[in-house]
Design brief:
Elements: E1 4-6, H1 10-13, E2 21-23, E3 29-31, E4 34-36, E5 42-45, E6 51-57, E7 60-64, E8 66-71, E9 76-82, E10 85-88, E11 98-103, E12 122-128, E13 131-134, E14 140-146, E15 149-155, E16 158-160, E17 165-170, E18 176-182, E19 185-187, E20 199-205, E21 218-224, E22 227-229, H2 235-248, E23 253-261, H3 262-265, E24 268-271, E25 274-275, E26 282-287
Parallel strand pairs: 1-4, 2-5, 3-6, 4-7, 5-8, 6-9, 7-10, 8-11, 9-12, 10-13, 11-14, 12-15, 13-16, 14-17, 15-18, 16-19, 17-20, 18-21, 19-22, 20-23, 21-24, 22-25, 23-26
Length: about 290
Amino acid sequence: KNNIIQQQDIEIALGNYCGGIELHGTNSVASDNYIVGCWPAIYITSSRGLLENVTVKNNTILNSVTGISFWIENPMKDITIENNLIRLTHARSVKNDFCVGIKVPNGNVKAYTKNLANASPIYNLQIAGNQIEADSMGTMSIGMLLHSLHQATITNNIIKGMNYGGIVLQGSKWGTDTLLVENNSFINFRTNNHPTAVAGYVVITDTYSRGIKDAPGFKNVLFKKNQFIRSGSREQDVLSQKNHLDKVGGENFFGAFVALPQRMIDAIQFKDNEFSQSTEKIHIVKIE
């Protein structure tokens, strides 16, 4: 609590992983810290067994490639991330191709091992009242990259300035069951200049479940009363977007992009959300 952790030279530090705080134990709290130039700033791991009752709150995280990162070898339970400010920047190396505010890694791969940090699910994850921002980086930026959530809520967060995804949900061996995403604001997203990646305020994919009998997939996922606001973009950004569309032949940014097997599509519900632009609506791709 109340610590200052600051890299002396982030141009050197962010050429590789350089963490700020690691939480390995049940009943841990990291709060009111000021963390600058770390990758990740806060790291939550269950490498020593079941991890439960962990809180990360009221931290200021600046110039970070990854703000809060999970390493899941054993189940996690009752994890709270609230009222943090996370400002992202790009890596000073080619080690990664995107930066993330809150990250649960490797959600859609076929292999599930402790070496990939994806060996168990998370129960009762609460993400509330955080502000996640990205600078005008060339690499892709994501507010939250998540998978394997059971009984989770994402509420009252502000995600600002991303160029790939606000909330990106991935399929996994354990699936996601009962997730509420409510009263969040997605503001001033930047141009998506990636030549092939489809981007959106919400991106939901499941490349794990295809061809796997009885894969859990997604169940009871509700996006409710969120604001998807791209107003306030600079004229330069609008012109850049137009030029980009001329090159790729069409729009590749959506309000929500959902690519799932048919049986999972009805599990994703959108209710009473506000979209500021008529072109940025929900796009659904059925995967056979």
